[in-house]
Amino acid sequence: MSPYMVGILVPLVFTLVMRNSKKEKQRGVPVDVAGDAGYVIRNHRFEFPVDSWWEGITTLSELFEQSCTQHHHNSLLGTRKLVSREVESSADGKSFEKLHLGEYEWLSYGQVFQLVSNFASGLSQLGHERVERVAIFADTCDKWFISLQGCFRRNLTVVTIYASLGEEALCYSLNETEVTTVICGGKELKKLEAIGGQLDTVKRIICIDDEFPSETSLVTGSNSWMITSFSDVERLGRENPIDPELPLAADIAVIMYTSGSTGLPKGVMMTHGNVLATVSAVMTIVPGLGSKDVYLAYLPLAHILELAAENVIAAIGSSIGYGTPLTLTDASNKIKRGTKGDASMLRPTLMTAVPAILDRVRGGVRKKVEDTGGFSKRLFDLAYSRRLSAMNGSWFGAWGLERLLWNFLVFRKVRAILGGHIRFILSGGAPLFPDTQRFINICLGAPIGQGYGLTETCAGGTFSEYDDTSVGRVGAPLPCSFIKLIDWPEGGYLTSDSPKPRGEIVVGGPNVTVGYFKNEEKTKEVYKVDESGIRWFFTGDIGQFHSDGCLEIIDRKKDIVKLQHGEYVSLGKVEATLIVSPYVDNIMLHADPFHSYCVALVVATQASLEEWASRNEIKHDTFSELCEKEQTLKEVYGSLIKAAKEASLEKFEIPTKIKLVSEAWTPESGLVTAALKIKREVIKKAFSQDLDKLYSS
Q1: Tens digit of each residue's pLDDT (9 = 90 or more) over 161-216
Q2: Architecture of the structural domain at 28-49+350-420+422-556
Q3: 0.90 cut: is pTM over it?
Q4: 60-322: which CATH topology?
Q5: How far apart are the first and last CA of the chain?
Q6: Which helix (H) or strand (E) element contains residue 574?
Q7: CA pair distance 358, 378, nearest whole angstrom
Q8: Least C-beta-crowded within 10 Å: which of 177, 389, 529, 660?
Q9: Taking the domains of the chain in order of start, what are their residue ranges?
């Protein structure tokens, strides 16, 4: 019997035998919080918020030292060896760097702890005082993590800054926090040199790149910097050890500068206790966390999602292998053809991801299936539809023999893209489109836990449980948090709404941070402490509770625009719907209260459009020229209309006109954040003339 026929008959038999009615599992339960209005839900397993999972542990430095003692010989931090670096040129004359990366080389927990202790001592020997702040301004790597833990052992507050931050925001962040020592990479050092005359307090630069020479000095304007290498600081501390000066739970561990979507960044002050609460809560959600797990780290450590995740991994004796978004898979842009990407080499079991990354994985798989065609495509489509119906039907179909059958026949090739061993993915940083969540869940054979949190809540808020296969929701409250909805009458969202309470989301618990650095006015506006002592953060997001206590994000105050005739448009909701088009790499919807319709800026997906142009014999010299053609606009716009109709968008929500953008929006361009969320105001300013033309034409 052919695999195709087996795929039809086996699922039918099992579904008929095993289908049964399921009682809804309660994942969050209502709770009364004294003296506060609103509808409050807590985690179903914990009556009170969890602040530490480990007895006697109150800070991140204590947790790290305990783990290094318990897992002394286990591998902790892994980095790939650079075999070669090459430059390739494309047909239009652009140059691309391609890397050949080798095996992972590992440092054990014991080795890392020694490096951390040496680096902490070296900082003091270098002249860095306890009252001074350290900034880490670098891409994610092992030395970033070691530097962080080294600072904690001296009770130093670390200012985290995205490596992609622009000059104005970088200068603002360093001056506002009066940083005296900056830990950075080689390319970040060049950015610092460019603004050196504007930095008021910087005295020392520690460069983490291996090829950086020994101690030098640099005069920038009226300032003089001492520049030294990470290895020299570590050696200095090894030769001159100093006893640690460990922090307390209430001490500020991190001032984290957001790459916010509007205005200058705000510095969020996080205590050791705040971050520890989120780390502790995650321990209760993902089952079976332990020393056999391997985590692929590639998101910015200056983002709280990644910082919290790596501290979880280090706490349980697991291994962290470092990669980058541009070397993640075998087909990634910077990987030399025929060599392995980070995931293939590391074969991780755990990952965090932002929706933009998962959307690209989904798009890549879909494109490959379409290109292959024939029997392979029919088998894939059958497998996908059967897995989807099984997940929506019987428990047995979702997790039993049928799952094993399809994984073996079809989906193991897809799983191989991320190394073949993924058992859990956490998605955070932005809403994940339901179709992408289903697709990744089915094709990887592993659950995606959608989380909801903010920098201001140390990434803690809600988290989908391992056995929750629903989509479009962000789970029940984490054990460290209460989640409250409060009325927002102006937007029409009330906790008394039926059948689901709706309102602005407010997060309370030990993970809620202290406030914004040197910004008491903004802190008082969005942080409140109730009479029972619970600290709350008012998010500005709009949510609704499902009957099982899980939260769904349905809107955001700032994203709602009232059109000329009184209709309300949720920009984020429409963008999340339209980005599923195979031609769309990114999109920004624009609505103007003085018009009755919307327009959109669409960043085109080059590979998909080039393939369409080739099939239809549309001649062009450059991709930019292709994006200007009338046929291209019609094709892309048609795909948007199709996506809008499938999602049942209202007519006024669908953009009437679009502008195709040929250049990708990247953190380096300043048009998206490090978590790849669009910077709406920055994009509006950069494309103001294009938007004006769309409305006037």
Answers
A1: 988 888 888 999 999 999 999 999 999 999 998 898 899 999 999 999 877 655 66
A2: 3-Layer(aba) Sandwich (3.40)
A3: no
A4: Rossmann fold (3.40.50)
A5: 61
A6: helix 571-578
A7: 23
A8: 529
A9: 28-49+350-420+422-556, 60-322, 563-696
